[in-house]
Amino acid sequence: MSRIFTKNNIFLNEDLKTQDDVLRYVASKAQELQIGTKDVVYQAFKQREVAASTGMQDGIAMPHAISEEIKRAAVIYVGLEKPLNDWMTFDDTKVDKIIAMLVPSDGTKKHLEIISEFATSLVDEEKRKKLSKLNTVEAVYDFLKINEEE
């Protein structure tokens, strides 16, 4: 059984300049991780961003893609070397932490619940601020703890 979030889904100190660069990068990683093809994932991200920005606060963005061509639910974390200027957030902070969520359109209720619970956990301001200080794959993985099996 695969897991929604593993250490292989964490990418740190990435040098990406724009929101579009990030979405393309995550889509490419999704393909490498055999979650879905980069074109499908990228288009699903773009479609979601048209509806409303997925920028949150304290430098966090949570783009998500839902598509029948996504093979399994997954979360990909990207930490940026430098914050982006072009991702709109609730508090006008620059995005430097991306938590991308990918869900098959026929995903089980459990997949959606796990991802929803995870997103809700980041409502806690102290948790968001602590995430900013983590700089190793192990620390990010242990902190986020999205380990429920499918």
TrEMBL record:
InterPro entries: PTrfase/Anion_transptr (IPR016152), PTS_EIIA_type-2_dom (IPR002178), PTS_SugarTrans_NitroReg (IPR051541). SUPFAM superfamilies: Phoshotransferase/anion transport protein. Keywords: Sugar transport, Transport. The keyword Transport applies. Residues 3-147 form the PTS EIIA type-2 domain. This is PTS sugar transporter subunit IIA.
